[in-house]
Every structure is written in structure tokens, then in C-alpha cells.
Write a structure and sequence with these properties.
The chain is an all-alpha fold. It folds into two domains: 64 residues; 174 residues, f41 fragment of flagellin, N-terminal domain, CATH 1.20.1330. A two-stranded antiparallel sheet has the order 1-2. A hairpin with a 7-residue loop joins strand 1 and strand 2. Helix 1 packs antiparallel against helix 5, helix 2 runs antiparallel to helix 3 and helix 2 runs antiparallel to helix 4. The chain starts with 8 loop residues before the first helix and ends in a 10-residue tail after the last helix.
């Protein structure tokens, strides 16, 4: 090997090796500090782009789930009110059956008629109170509930409104102040109540099916969200146990490279001995 002081090949090689190890050490330190193997496009453009697409999909799931849950709340409130109305109709039929007795006195019939009217008015109060955020699926003239069920907005779930107001088509009973004036009127109300009870069952079934559909879609979106989070993690997260081992190894290599560079830089001093 040529001995000279103008060029130090050993030091150049040692410096290159030190720079390489330092770059690797910086990369490992970044992964340890961020917890990410891919934290920017320069780390891995393809993986970063794919992860960003999945993050966008994940971000769009939350508003869809919020809409599904708000919609389910509206349907559940309507369903709870409808079930209470069904119970009231059963009570009204029992009162009307008592009023159909021809042997009742006028006073007894008045008491039953007032009780019947009170139960009927309770139906109206239940219908009016079944409102969630301005949505009432059982009020007169209510619109169907349409809820977006996918992140691209192409899929929707529709829950048909059910008019459960008195005189709205399903519940057609007497609306006067004295609905049970005589046995014949009471008998007519029994017939009307039987029809209303029979018609109310499919209406409640529709609301129940709508609530279940919204709940199932919400559960599906939650699973998709979990799967996306796992996928993003698999793409971008660093294996910290592995990176910790690499960090320690590179730190040792860096120290050795520094010592090697120091030795290489000291080598030209040996030439001075030739001139002693």
C-alpha cells in the first residue's frame, strides 16, 4: 500500500461506513419514536398511498354510523310508542266490551265513556311525543326515513312511516267527547278496535324490521372499521421489539465505526517515523 498524507483511503472507507450506519440509525430512531414503519410518502410511496386510501375510507365510516344510530333511535322511539299504543288499544277494547252491556246505567256508561276517551287521547300524546330530532315516524303525514348505509352514499336503508294517529287509517275509532253513548256504539267501537289491533301488528313489524336492519348495518360498519384499522396498522406500524434490537446493534456499530475512523485518521502519523 502506498504511504502518503495527501489521500487516506482507509479514512474515506471508514467515513462512508460511519455515514451508512448513521443513516440506518436515524431511520430506526424515527420508527421507534413514531411507532410507524411508514410515516410519510418518502418512506414507502406505494404503501403510504394505500394506507391513506384506507384512512379516508375509515374516516368516512364514522358519519355513516352516526346517521345509522340517529335513525335507529328515531325508529326505536316510534316502535316503543307503537307498542304502548297497542297496549292502550287492548285496554280500550276491554272498556268498550264493558260498555256493550245493555244493562248499564247512564252513570256507569258515562264513566266508561270518559275512560275510553282518556285512553284514546293518550294515543295522541304518545304519537306526538315520538319525536327524535324532528323525526316522527308515526305522526300523521310523516315521511319515510331514509338513512345512508354506505360510505359512497349509493346504499340506503328505508324505514316506512306508519301513521298511528287517531283516524290516520290504522287506528280509526270514535273521536267525539262521548264515544260510548249506547251499547250499539260500543259494539261498533269493538269492531273498530279489533281492526286497529290487527292492522297495528304489521305496522309495528315494519318498524321492528327497520330498526334491526339499521342495527345490523351499524354492526357491519363497525367490523369494517376494525378491519381497516388493523389493515392500516399492518401496513404502517413498526415492530418495536425488532426495531429495539436493531437500534442497540446499530449503536454498537456506530461506536465501532467512529473508532475505526479515528484509527484510520491516525495512520498518516506513522509516516513521521520514516523521517526521524
Amino acid at each position: 500500500m502506498v504511504n502518503n498524507v495527501s489521500t487516506n483511503p482507509g479514512a474515506l472507507v471508514a467515513l462512508q461506513n460511519l455515514n451508512r450506519i448513521t443513516d440506518q440509525l436515524s431511520e430506526v430512531q424515527r420508527r421507534v419514536s413514531t411507532g410507524k414503519q411508514v410515516s410519510s410518502a418518502k418512506d414507502n410511496p406505494a404503501i403510504y398511498a394505500l394506507a391513506q386510501q384506507q384512512r379516508a375510507e375509515l374516516a368516512s365510516i364514522e358519519p355513516v354510523q352516526q346517521g345509522l344510530r340517529v335513525g335507529q333511535s328515531a325508529v326505536d322511539v316510534a316502535l316503543a310508542a307503537g307498542e304502548s299504543i297497542s297496549d292502550i288499544l287492548v285496554q280500550m277494547k276491554a272498556v268498550a266490551s264493558q260498555a256493550a252491556d245493555t244493562s248499564l246505567t247512564a252513570e256507569q256508561r258515562t264513566v266508561l265513556s270518559e275512560q275510553y276517551a282518556s285512553l284514546r287521547d293518550q294515543i295522541t300524546r304518545l304519537v306526538d311525543s315520538a319525536d327524535v330530532g324532528g323525526r316522527n315516524l308515526i305522526a300523521s303525514g310523516a315521511s319515510d326515513l331514509v338513512v345512508v348505509a354506505s360510505t359512497d352514499g349509493t346504499q340506503t336503508i328505508t324505514v316506512a312511516a306508519q301513521d298511528l294517529s287517531v283516524g290516520g287509517g290504522i287506528i280509526n275509532v270514535a273521536t267525539g267527547a262521548d264515544p260510548l253513548t249506547d251499547a250499539a256504539t260500543a259494539q261498533a267501537e269493538i269492531t273498530a278496535l279489533t281492526t286497529a289491533i290487527d292492522a297495528l301488528s304489521p305496522a309495528l313489524a315494519n318498524l321492528g324490521s327497520g330498526s334491526k336492519s339499521l342495527a345490523l348495518q351499524d354492526r357491519l360498519m363497525s367490523r369494517i372499521s376494525d378491519a381497516l384499522e388493523i389493515s392500516i396498522g399492518n401496513l404502517t406500524d413498526a415492530d418495536l421489539a425488532k426495531e429495539s434490537s436493531r437500534l442497540q446493534a446499530l449503536q454498537v456499530q456506530q461506536q465501532l465505526a467512529i473508532q475505526t475512523l479515528s484509527i484510520a485518521n491516525a495512520a498518516p502519523n506513522a509516516i513521521l517515523a520514516l523521517f526521524a
